[in-house]
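Kindly inspect this today.
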Amino acid sequence: MSMYLRGSVYWIEFRDPDGNRVRESTGTSDREKAKSYHDLRQHQLTEGREKPGTWDDAVERWLRERTDKRSLDRDESMIRWLHPHFRRRIFATITDDEVRHVVELKKQETTASNANHYLKFIRALFNRSIEWKWLASSPVKMKPYRTSDKRIRFLSEAELARLLTELPHHLRMMAEFSVLTGLRMSNVTGLKWDRVDLSRRITWVDSTEYKSGRNHGIPLGQRAIEILLGEQGCHPTYVFTYRGYPVQNANNTAWRSALSRAGITDFRWHDLRHTFASYHALNGTPLLTLKALGGWQSLSMVNRYAHLATEGTRQYVLEHVPGVPPTAVGACGNSVGESTHTPPTVSLPTRSEQRS
């Protein structure tokens, strides 16, 4: 097998198992990458493997084979972002260093957690290519970034009021409905009238559209019902629309501009779901009930709100130490029971305020 330049791109020439002479482009002007491709093809000929495809071929085949995947739209979004970095590259010549560089770019652009999603997709694509006989092993050795699962960003009562005031009307209704129901953005934008039962005061999300893969029913309070009634007649199929068309993405320029005008930072549309859960926890909703309301798959996913759920346990607080007579004076000389410090008043939304 030989390697030579044709123009600015390296080509290789070899004979296939039947003795036919074959010429192939390596798709690169980098001699080291071309040499890697040369060695790979030589190994593949020995192993009897297929000719490797390009990045474009790989993602096209991935999408074709994964049509049943619930998060396929997420894959398509990641592919669109990754495409400029890898398009037309011979798939088998992509290195771990290149993957690290691209994933790091995504981390700098967004967050480490989001970058890990891209790394997971790339790794899955390479693993699938092994099944396709394109590769003997995956070059991706990079480990995910370490992240904290403790981020819970939710809006205070004042922040939520400011945001709803600044949002255009159609987004305000969607955001308010999200806080009332805990639905994710895709479930709100994709909500259809045939999934709403106003007489029984429920709506539901089909298993094919819900992250857990299970059907999820949501009871509706009075304010949620009022929002739905206000959307009737705008569209025959979809609940939430703008100028007669379904809203496909609520995380848009209007949303970000409203956040800026409201003076709210470090907040994503998905954090409306955290706001829903946090308000419930703050007002004493039992965690098992919250798990059912929010459609979480396991209690561990709800436990991150447990530190807010103090009202539900207040009835079990010890009022005094059993069998020990109380002292009258504290270490600073103050009478026990009297305080020189007035704690700040914290205003929390009540259940009635959530429904209003």
Observations:
- The domain at 49-147 is CATH 1.10.150.130 (DNA polymerase; domain 1).
